[in-house]
Design brief:
It is a single chain. Strands 1-4-3-2-5-6 form a 6-stranded mixed beta sheet, with helices on one face. It has 6 helices and 6 strands. The chain is globular. It is α/β, with parallel strands linked by helices.
Length: about 160
C-alpha cells in the first residue's frame, strides 16, 4: 500500500512538472485566427489558452514577450476561449499583436476538456509536437523554466 502511494505521488509530481508526456491530440483545427484568414495553429508550438473573463490569464498575457523568448524556438501562440471578435477586442485593448492569436468559440467546458487533460481550469498552456500531440501541459501560471524545458523536449 505504501509503495503504491509513493509511486502515485511520484507520477503526480512528474506530470505536474511536465516531465511525463501526454500524447492525446487536441482539436487544433477548431482554433481560428482572431484576425481572420485561414491560418492554423503551428506545429510544434506552445499554446496559451485564455479567456476574456479570466483575470489570471490577463496577468499571464502581459508577460507574453518574456514567455515567447523563453519558448524559442517553439512559437508561442494564444488561444482564446471566446468568440473571435471578443478575443480580438481584448487583445487590441491590451496592446497585443493579433499575429499568432487564435480563438475557439465553443463553450469553455468543451475547449478545456479538449485541451486540459481532464482539468477544467485556466490559465492553461499546452505544448504540442510536430504531429499535433500534447508533449507538455501546465495548469496555472506559466514559468520561463517550463517553457525552456518544452523548447528542448517538444522540438524533436
Amino acid at each position: 500500500m505504501v509503495r503504491w502511494v509513493i509511486i502515485s505521488f511520484m507520477a503526480m509530481l512528474a506530470g505536474a512538472a511536465g516531465a511525463a508526456p501526454v500524447r492525446n491530440m487536441p482539436s487544433i483545427g477548431l482554433a481560428k485566427p482572431v484576425a481572420g484568414g485561414v491560418a492554423t495553429v503551428p506545429r510544434p508550438a506552445v499554446v496559451m489558452l485564455w479567456a476574456s473573463w479570466c483575470a489570471s490569464c490577463k496577468v499571464e498575457l502581459r508577460r507574453f514577450s518574456e514567455l515567447q523568448e523563453a519558448a524559442a524556438p517553439l512559437p508561442l501562440v494564444t488561444l482564446a476561449i471566446d468568440p473571435a471578435p471578443t478575443a480580438k477586442e481584448a487583445l487590441v485593448s491590451a496592446g497585443m499583436t493579433l499575429r499568432g492569436a487564435f480563438a475557439d468559440g465553443r463553450p469553455a467546458e468543451q475547449v478545456l476538456a479538449d485541451w486540459g487533460g481532464g482539468l477544467l481550469s485556466l490559465p492553461l498552456a499546452v505544448a504540442i509536437d510536430r504531429e499535433g500531440r500534447v508533449c507538455g501541459r501546465k495548469h496555472g501560471l506559466l514559468g520561463t523554466n517550463q517553457l525552456r524545458e518544452w523548447a528542448v523536449s517538444c522540438s524533436k
